[in-house]
Amino acid sequence: MIRKKKKYKRPLQPFEKSRIEEENVLKKNYALKNKAEVWKAKAKVDYFRGRAKELAKKPIEEQEVLFRKLKSLGLEIETITDILDLKVEDILKRRLATVVVKKKLANTVSHARQLVVHKKILINGKVVSSPSYLVPVAQESVISVKTKQKKSKPAKQEAPSQEEKPTEPDKEKEEEVKQEGEEQ
C-alpha cells in the first residue's frame, strides 16, 4: 500500500499570534473548514515560487509552460516576478466556493461551500463536490446550480372508494352494532 504524503507543512511556530490572526481572517473570508486548508494553499504558492526560481535560469520556452498553466487557472502572470509575488489569497480566490459566490449563484461563501459539499454545483454538467477545486478560467462560464426536477407520476387507475368497499374491521363493527341494536 502506498502511503500518501501530506499536501502541506505545519507552521514551525505553532503559537505565533500574528499568523494565527491572519489565518483566522482567511478562514472566515473564504469559508475554510480548518487551518489545514490555508496551509495547503500556502504550499501551492510555495510550489509555484519554487518552480519559478528553478525556471529563472532556463530558456523562455520552458518558462512559458508554467506561465500558461497559471494563466489558465486565472492568475495574472506575465513574468517570474509575478509568480514570486503570488499570495495565498490569489489561490483562495480561484477555489470553487469563491467563484460560485463571484458568479452570484450563492449568497455567501459559506452558502457556496454548502452547495458544493451537498453536490448541488455542476461544472460542464458534472457534479463537483470539492470546495477546494481550483477553477480554470475556461470552466468558469459553465458553472451552474443543479435544479430539482419533479418526477412525473404515472396515471393511476381509479381504485374503488372506501365507501363502496368496506374493510374487514368495518364489517365486524357493523355486525356488533346490529347485534347490540337487536338485544335492546
Quick tags:
single chain, 184 residues, mainly alpha, Structural Genomics Hypothetical 15.5 Kd Protein In mrcA-pckA Intergenic Region, Chain A, 2 domains, three-stranded antiparallel β-sheet, elongated
3D structure, described in words:
The protein is mainly alpha-helical and 184 residues long. It folds into 2 domains: 1-87, no CATH class; 95-147, RNA-binding S4 domain (Structural Genomics Hypothetical 15.5 Kd Protein In mrcA-pckA Intergenic Region, Chain A), CATH 3.10.290.10. 51% of the residues lie in helices and 4% in strands. The protein is built from 9 helices and 3 strands, in the order αααααααββαβα. It has helices spanning 17-29, 35-55, 60-72, 80-84, 88-92, 96-102, 109-117, 137-140, 168-183; strands at 121-123, 126-127, 143-145. Strands 2-1-3 form a 3-stranded antiparallel beta sheet, with no helix packed on it. The longest helix has 21 residues, at 35-55. It is elongated.
